[in-house]
Amino acid sequence: MKQFLPFATLAIFLATGTRADEPDTSAVPVRHRLSDCHLHLVDFLQRTEGARAVLAAMDRAGVDETMISGMPLVKEWSQREHQQPQYYLDDDGRCYWYSATDVLVQREISALPEADRRRFHPFICGFNGADRNAVDHVKRMIEWYPNFWEGIGEVMTRHDDLTALTYGDPPHADWDTLDPIYDLAAKNDLPVSVHSDISSVWKRQPIYLDEMENAIRKHPETRFIWCHAGISRRIVVPTLTDDLRRLLTAHANVSIDVSWVLFDAYLIKDGKPDEKWIALIEEFPDRFLVGSDKVGKFGDYPHEVQRYYRILDALKPETARKVGRDNFLALLPKRVREARR
Ligand SMILES: [Zn+2]
Prior knowledge:
- With 341 residues, the chain is of the alpha/beta class.
- The chain has a domain at 34-171 and 260-340: TIM Barrel (Alpha-Beta Barrel), CATH 3.20.20.
- It is built from 15 helices and 14 strands.
- It has helices at residues 7-16, 51-61, 100-110, 114-117, 134-144, 160-165, 179-187, 209-218, 240-250, 262-267, 275-283, 301-306, 309-314, 317-330, 334-340; strands spanning 34-36, 39-40, 63-68, 73-75, 95-97, 120-124, 151-156, 192-195, 224-226, 254-257, 268-269, 272-273, 288-289, 294-295.
- An 8-stranded parallel beta sheet has the order 1-3-6-7-8-9-10-13.
- The radius of gyration is 20 Å and the shape is globular.
- Zinc ion (ZN) binds next to loops.
C-alpha cells in the first residue's frame, strides 16, 4: 500500500526538511551548564564520529566536560546474517569482549590539544568482569597510559538482551571476579560506573538490587556510579524511588546516573517531571548525575542532554547546579579536581 504523509507532518517536512517523527536534533539556548557522566566514544561496532564531533556537540549543548569510555562489547557480524548489524539488538548475532576499545579512546583523546583534552574524563571499560584476570587489563591500561585514566566503567554486568547475546556468562556486580577491580579503583582514587539491571524484564520487584548493593557494601572505599539506576529497556519497578531512597540512606559511596531510558520511563510522568523523583533528588542533592549514554554518533546529542532541563528547572537552583554539573566532577580523582582549580 502506498504511504502518504499526514498533512501536518507534510507541512512540517516542507517547512524544516525533516519528518516530524524524526528526533529534533537542534539545540535550545543554554540555560544550565552541564557535565555528562556517561558517554561512549564508540558504538557496538567500535565506530565513532570522533572526539571532534563530541566536542562540537558538547559546545552546542552547553556541556563543559564529559566522562568518555569505549564499548566493552562488540557485535559480531555472523555469516548467518545478510545485513550488517549496527546495534546489538539488530539481529540474533552474538557480542564478545573487546579490550582494544580502551586503546581507541586513548588514541582519540590524547591526539587533542590540551585545552580540549581536559574536557574529557576517560574511563577504562574493555574487560570481561567474569574473568578473575580482568584486573590485569585495567592495570595494563594504567601502566601504558599513566595519569590518563580518571575512572573505570561502564562495567557491563546484568544487561537484559545484551547479557543474553554475549558469549559466555557475563558477571554480576557482586561477583568475586570484580573485587580486585573495585579494590584497584579505590587504591587509585578512580570512580567506577556499573551497569547492573535491578530486575528482569518480566518481574516488577527489584530482584537483582542485592547484587549492586552487595558490591557497594563490600567496597566502602570505592565510589560507585549506578548506571541509569539499574533500569534498562522494558524493566518496570514501581517501587524504584523507595528502593533508591533506602540504598542512598544506607550507603554513602554510591551515586545515581539518570541517563538513557530512565528519563522517559521514570523521570517524566504524564508529560511532567515526576514529583516522586524531584522529591528524592532534593533529599539527596549530592547523589544524582546527568548523562547522555550516547554511543558513537552525536547528531542528536543536544536533544539527549538538554531534555534534562525539564528536571533541572523543577529543582532548587543550587540542586540543579549540582545534579547538572558539579556532582559528577566531584567524583573524579583528587589529582584531576585539583588540576581543574
Ligand atoms: Zn552506557
